[in-house]
Amino acid sequence: MVLKLKKRVNLAYRLLIKGENPAGARGEVPAITPEEVAEARQFFPLGKFFIFGHARSGTTLLTRLVRLHPRVHCNYQAHFFTRAPLLEALVADEQVKEWLRRRSNRWNNGRDLSPLVLRAASDFIMERDARRAGKHAPGCLVGDKSPNSLLDGEAVRLMVKVYPDARLIFIVRDGRDAAISHRFQAFIDMPQTLSRADLHIRADFARDPEPFLSGQRSLFTEKSLRNSAKGWAHNVVETDSGARQLLGKNYCQLRFEELLANPWGEMSKIWSFLGVDPEASGLKQALEAELDQNPDADWQQQKAGEIASAIQKGKQGNWQNIFTPRDKQIFSEAAGEVLKAWNYPG
Fold first, then answer.
1. Could you tell me if 250 and 166 are in contact, meaning their C-beta atoms sit under 8 angstroms apart?
2. How far is it, in rounded angstroms, from Cα 260 to Cα 201?
3. Angle between the 263-274 and 59-66 helix axes, to the nearest 10 degrees?
4. What is the pLDDT of residue 7?
5. Cβ-based neighbour number of residue 207 at 10 Å
6. Residue 87 backbone phi and psi in degrees, to 5
């Protein structure tokens, strides 16, 4: 009884007098303040941007193109805000929480240091890579592309907590084409994630792809296609609405199909949005050369040529030939309103 009383007195002393919380029940990591942003930019001055998009919506192509600019660097999939364990995992431990916010830690000036720790960690990772790429002079920008299909609009909120000053580019692709591309990716790169029914479809496709490519047989189980349609619709709606609300003029979106149809025009808009000159010397020629490359297709051909050789990668409107009538009905039921809102034909 005496020991319990001593523990309670010690806990009360640490909480009330010293401002410590041994239980670490802090709750959510606080957002960075404007003053802290200004401080962080004194050490890491490059502008920051992020590319979000549903899986298989052209985020990789956009990354390859955007970093052609001599003042822009972008790399792949740090998943700071888009996939567990997330950047916040760096300060999630209960003891780390306590250390960064307790009042006896005179380095924190009475405020939780967690937002600055997160900002400094991600800033260093990105600016280190930009420096290696030779893009670290004043006026340069550095970004990360990470598909946000797993966290959707929550990824935007988490990003803004650490980077309220960053720009966000959201690329959208017709969900039906994205579903097909994601399906083939699973067939080629991740067969271990497929169900028994999916593996049967994969084996049948490898033996005879023609019925699947002409809309006679479905690439999907009904459950997987319905889930894919719902996931795409939720991602597009939540990401776009959250970004409009939280980022305002620091947000822009584009459609993958328009990027394919008018790459120079769309990329000029993106570079202008980022605040760099789209008329930089040699940029248009570099863009044309990059569009002739398709490293993802080359990789898939090496990984599973018997499947990849039958696929036309990056083609707009593949779903019209590949979807069965039932596939089209399922996707329309689950995501038809979102397709209409983004001007995708039924």
1. yes
2. 30
3. 70
4. 44
5. 8
6. -60, -35
The pLDDT tens digits for 215-248 are 999 999 999 999 999 999 999 999 999 999 999 9
pTM: 0.88
**Closest among 165, 310, 169 to 239, alpha carbons compared:** 169
| Spatial contact of 24 and 94, defined as CB atoms under 8 Å apart | yes
Among residues 77, 85, 84, which one has the least CA distance to residue 145?
77
Tell me the β-bridge partners of 142.
48, 73
Query: E strands of 47-148, at which residues?
Result: 47-53, 72-76, 141-145
**Domains, in order of start, for the chain:** 28-341 (3.40.50.300)
* Nearest Cα residue to 24 out of 91, 71, 74: 91
CB–CB of 317/177 below 8 Å? yes
Q: What interhelical angle do 196-207 and 175-189 show, nearest 10?
A: 90
* DSSP 8-state assignment for residue 251: E
C-alpha Rg value of the chain to the nearest Å: 24
Find the range with the poorest average confidence among 72-76, 105-109, 161-165, 329-333.
105-109
